[in-house]
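ok so dumb question maybe but i'm new to this and my supervisor (M.) told me to 'just get the structure for Rieske 2Fe-2S family protein' and walked off. so i did the thing. is this what she meant?? sequence i used:
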Amino acid sequence: MLDRSSTPLNALLRRRRPGHSLEAPFYTSPEIFAADIEAIFERTWVFVGVEPDVPEPGDALTVDIGANAILIVRDDDMAVRAFHNVCRHRGARLVHDEKTTVGNLVCRYHSWTYNLDGDLIHAEHMGGDFDPKCHGLKPVHVRSLEGLIFICLADEPPEDFAEMERAMAPYIAPHHLRDTKIAFQSDLIEEGNWKLVMENNRECYHCGANHPELTVPLFAHGFGFAPEELDEAERAEADRYAALVRSSHAEWEAAGIPSRMQEHLDDRISGFRTERLPLDGDGESHTMDTKAACRLPLGPFSSAKMGGLHFWTQPNSWHHFMGDHVVTFSAIPLSAGQTRVRTTWLVHKDAVEGVDYDLANLIEVWTATNAQDAELVGFCQKGAQSRAYEPGPYSPHTEMLVEKFCRWYIQRMSEHFDVARAAA
Ligand code: 3BY
Ligand code: FES
Ligand code: FE
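this is what came out, is it supposed to look like this??
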């Protein structure tokens, strides 16, 4: 483990150059990876799944965050609960499948059995002095933001999550996420540090050159540009887009659909950004013809042109809510050089594949985009290992939000390790 009193980590944190990518060890060092888990993933609210991952009582989902095995279950009262996936007898992992359905939670080792509330309800041969009440599963903080499941491993989770909930619930609610089902889920193991995955997600500087599918529904100029570099035609296009954003926002907000940008990426622990943006072409969805992929709308929308609601959270998620489907993404760090990106496509729960939606059409844009992003992240991971690598400058026009991600990260790390040092 890193020596925290005279550490290279502290020095690296102190000398981070604003407006530039991070120094190589932040992407490559196993010690800094362990520090990231401790200071970020064991402290902040982490997005792990959606309520439709566990639609019925007894449905369970497991996720590992660093050395922590977490279990998310739907209990008999339909509440979503989270526990450490660790038996209170001798610590065996309790649930082994990533997804399963259980009546009770039975440990394979000596058959200790817990109900869905985490109470130990059966343990043989433990004698009269044994108190099962003291051996329930250890709970993990869990919150569902309109169906998006976040967990926090800290004893005292950041309280500002409530502010994000208050701000975001009205944006997400119209999409009725709890009335959706998973049409498709994909796991991609990206060959890159989790921060490279997140940095890549926080800009579209790379979109024009790399995402031919994504740039069909998304506007090329929607994610920033240097005004002085635009020619006349490009400027006219940018102006047209800005006017469309203004008129779409006015129209949606008047219809009770919150749409305006809100951004707290680096001034809160539970940092986030949102904005509902109009789509190009016919503007209905993230598809190759920009038309809705699913015939059943998610809510009682007056138009199919609901744009795309972006919702990004620190440290590890991004989401797109359209009128007809939702796509959510979670980045789970596996090691310094590997990250699991889980993508989940959700449609109305009554939608029938092949009748109301064509699966290939539904997932085409983001399947292609994810593969392209995974490759780009891999390029950067390789680059960070080279002796030629040095932090490079972010574009002030298109990479401001990458900078905000890095600033948020450096703040969290500095706070955590300074506090730990002061307390020592
Ligand atoms: O998914 C996102 O929200 C960002 C913006 C577009 C590209 N990128 C993947
Ligand atoms: Fe679970 Fe023994 S470790 S029952
Ligand atoms: Fe991308």
